[in-house]
Amino acid sequence: MPVTAVAAGALAVVFAMAVAGKVSRPAFTRFRRSAAALWPVPGRLGARPATALAAAVLLAEAAVAAGLLLVGIVAPRPVFSAAVLLLAVFTAAQILALRRGRAVTCACFGRTDTSVSRTGVARNAVLIALGLLGAVTADRPGTTALSLVCAVAGGVAGLVVASLEDIVSLFRIPPVPAKGAGR
Hints:
Blueprint: H1 2-20, H2 25-38, H3 47-69, H4 76-99, H5 118-136, H6 144-162, H7 164-171
């Protein structure tokens, strides 16, 4: 259960941050545009289908976040499976956009200043691994106190993972303009 609690805590924080970043009208509008741009089927996704897709994703993320917060009460394997499934779909859409060379902003957490990148794909791979680990260890017994400590530690890890693009950007060195450029 301690490993399950760490995984549940981390994923709950990530999904809760994703939901919180999309609930305002402007943030949801940005996310709807991002979801439409990431739609893998050739052709443009219309406004109504894009809104339905974005709303479905938001509701699924909220349900997963709630389920992960209640992992000691609800059956954990289906909740972890839903988290892994959502993350796998998100990752596949990001990989397709990268392979097609499309510059798409990702409003995964409500922000629009980040583009779909290998960093986001790596973040999702880590989260998928956590979800699988949580599902595999779901039946292991643990003490309530230890599980609570592990869930909090997982929550802190979730904050770090959800902020991965921001952390990576801190260490990115901007390109130096060539001599004579800008004249």
